[in-house]
Amino acid sequence: MMNKLNLTRAAVSLIFSILPAFTLGIGPIASVLINMYGCRPVAVGGTCIASLGFFLSRWWVNIWFYYVTIGIIGGTATGIAVCGTGVGTFVLSYVMDGIVNKWSWLSYSNALLVEAFIILIGLACGFAMKPLPHEASQQRQLARKARAEAERKKLALLLILQKNSVNSEGNAVNAIVEPMLPVDTDETLSTKKSFFSRIADEIDLKLLKNAAFALFVISSVLAGLGFNVVYNFADDLANDLKVIKDQRTYIVMSMGLSNIFGRVMLGNLRDRIPKNQLHLFIITTIISGIAIIVAPLCGSSIALHISYASTFGFFSGGAVTLQVPVLAAVVGDEKQNVAFGVLSLFGGFAVVIGTPIVGAMRDAFSDFAQPFLWPYVIFGSCTILSGIILFAIPLLQPKEEEQQNKSNE
């Protein structure tokens, strides 16, 4: 893409930082849409929007247009559809490399068109989604809503009958009976809330007053600076280190495949040691940071590149899986959804600045023997630091609990 657009690495890499940034930042909106319309229509709509973004990119080769179509539209759609995992990284890295580099008759622009149609395959997944059965608590809530609605309809009918007979009596009944109705105020108000007010509810910045959660957000920002660097610059790094061109695709493929295993295996381990999930999360984050630092030291050996990529993919995938349960332990189950919205928002800011900075540093150090060395060391260190500072969370949580108890008294 750099050669096609004839631009610097920093300018081009901004496309691939805007996309994941919007994917993260759009999380609260996706949550509201799912609550309003359900998973199936949201997944289908997100897939269509993502495909549209790449389809439009085919018709105009312009960096600013790509920022909108691939970065903003593609990132927004990915966040809405809540899609994109290690499977996509594993498969599409090989497919797109073949389309762009080996099947030259397709051309770069037509490759974007092919990718737009590949994304449309997600429609099948969206239409295949079925609502999960309601849990007992959800069934009780639905029953309460049904009873409240029945009472409201019963009263409305009563008032109509009373007004038809004696208007004054109808007014009296209305004044007396209406306050006695067992209406759930919170539920009634929630149905009347606008779309934007619901989004505001999903992003409650007051949670940052919780010191443990604020530290968790800082950790997430530091990790976000480093995590996307490896995916976005793996091929450039291999090129600088003289890895054979035909073998470079295996680096990202190994990252995606190991990411799948990391999510499954470390997620299963978390279930076996629930009391130590914070420490497990810290370990996975620190090892991911070490893998980032080691990456520029792998030379031209494809085996070493696959080793660092697999290590990073495995442990970063585990970190992603562990993030939500650790967050729930920090803020509590009741505030977990809102806290995740705040976390995603700040994580998006980290992603959007991290990748372009690394690209700019790579261009600035182009005269050095290893232009990517310092960028990877700095951002890998940020990832390691993001894990280390989490050791302070158990020290902060007792203070938060004491403050909450005092406020309740």
UniProtKB/TrEMBL annotation:
A Pfam match: MFS_1
Record-annotated membrane-spanning stretches: 12-34, 40-57, 64-96, 108-129, 207-229, 249-266, 278-306, 312-331, 338-361, 373-396
One cellular component term from this protein's GO annotations in UniProt: membrane
Keywords: Membrane, Transmembrane, Transmembrane helix
Major subcellular location class: membrane
Entry superkingdom: Eukaryota
Keyword Amino-acid biosynthesis: no
Domain Major facilitator superfamily (MFS) profile: 212-409
Compartment(s) where it occurs, according to its Swiss-Prot or TrEMBL record: Membrane
Membrane topology: Multi-pass membrane protein
Protein name as catalogued: Major facilitator superfamily (MFS) profile domain-containing protein
